[in-house]
Amino acid sequence: MTDFSAPALRQSSETPARTMSGYVALLLAIAALAVVATFVPQVGDNTPLAVAMVIGGTLVFTFLIIGFYLLQPNQAAVILMFGDYRGTDRTTGLRWTWPWMIKKKVSVRANNIISEKIKVNDLRGNPIEMAAQVVWRVTDTAQALFDVDDYKAFVVVQIEAAVRTIGSRYPYDDFEHQEVTLRGNHDQVGVELRQELIARLTVAGITVDECGFTHLAYAQEIAGAMLRRQQAQAVVAARKTLVEGAVGMVELALEQLSAKDVVHLDDERRAAMVSNLMVVLCGERDTQPVVNTGSLYQ
């Protein structure tokens, strides 16, 4: 039976390169140049030794110059020989390797990227807009160069995919505060987003130091309706708190009146007093006092 499955990707791994300090090679290049300068005046006399020393010194000087390269802090050089990976040099300063070696520099500094705003459907199917800020850096230069085609473009695509995954995993908001939401649990969701990104970018030798959402809102087509819903729920919540407080105050007033034997009320007058107190405490406008000049039952 023929196996048509795709072959597994060969994972690269960073190894130290065998290079040397450029300052030693620089001294040799200066010495070669000095030899050339010494024997150049003697070339006019057709002295074989002078010609040989000038040609040899020039070749040595050229050979050494081609192998120089510079590395700044948090910068690495991937060394290739005829397409074969020979290691990564992370030592800063002036460096030297064989001239036939190809040097590809890779920055291992922290990079900051803010993704584009994308539209995502949350757990309840509501369209929302999301954007994320991610701080990433290369940890394995061999994987970054050889396991993906363009590691910077790979990061951008994976950030968008991770944002979509996290956005569809939770609801945007929950006014009953019974579940994890994108808006109410920003830190927790941010940690999960970082874990998702690290898992996606490991194949490229990249890690994520920090990430978070820079934009999180309902999409324009439902923003107005959701705003009215939020306002209505806020009003209901405020009314509920107000009624609970008013009931407690009325209950306390009746208990104090009965305990101190201030006045005796039958059930009908007690109900009327409760109704009046609730109107006073729960009304949106200030009440106007009315002085009763008659008896309690008039």
UniProtKB/TrEMBL annotation:
> Which keywords are on file for this protein?
Membrane, Transmembrane, Transmembrane helix
Q: What is its main location?
A: membrane
Q: Which residues form a coiled coil?
A: none
One Pfam family in the UniProt entry: Band_7
Compartments reported by the entry: Membrane
Occurrences of domain Band (ranges): 66-234
What InterPro entries does UniProt report for this protein, alphabetically? Band_7, Band_7/SPFH_dom_sf
What membrane topology is given? Answer: Single-pass membrane protein
Highest taxon above the source species: Bacteria
The membrane spanning regions, by residue number, are: 21-43, 49-71
PANTHER family to which the protein is assigned, alphabetical: BAND 7 DOMAIN-CONTAINING PROTEIN (PTHR43446:SF1), MEMBRANE PROTEIN-RELATED (PTHR43446)
Q: What is this protein called?
A: SPFH domain-containing protein
Organism in which the protein naturally occurs:
Sphingomonas canadensis
